[in-house]
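Lecture notes, unit on protein representations.

Consider one protein chain, 119 amino acids long.
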Amino acid sequence: QVRFVESGGGSVEPGGSLNLSCVSSGFPFPNYAMAWYRQAPGKERELVAFTLHNGGHTKTYVDAVRGRFTISRDDSKNALHLQMNNLEPEDTAVYYCNKFGTIGMLTDWGQGTQVTVSS
C-alpha cells in the first residue's frame, strides 16, 4: 500500500522559514521522481518542485518559489524534504508530497501539512 506522511508545517510570519518532510512507503522510492505539491484555499492543487530519481541531482522549481525553496531527497530513508525560506503570504497552503506526474492521475495522497504565512 502506497503511503505518504507529511510533517513540518506551521504558522510563520512573512520572511520566515520552514522545513517540510515526507516519509514514503509501499513502493521503490529510489526509482521514482518525487515532488511537492500545494493547494491553497479555493484553488486547485499545483506542483511546487520535483526531483528526479538520479539521487536527487536534478531539481526543478516553479517560478513562484525558485530561489526560495530547496527540494531534497534521502533515498536511504524514503524521505523527501522541502526547505522553504523567505516565505510569503502567497505560500499559504496545504503541502503534499507524491510521485512526480500529472496531478489528476496521481492517487494515494497523504493528509498533507498546513503552512500558514501571516503577520
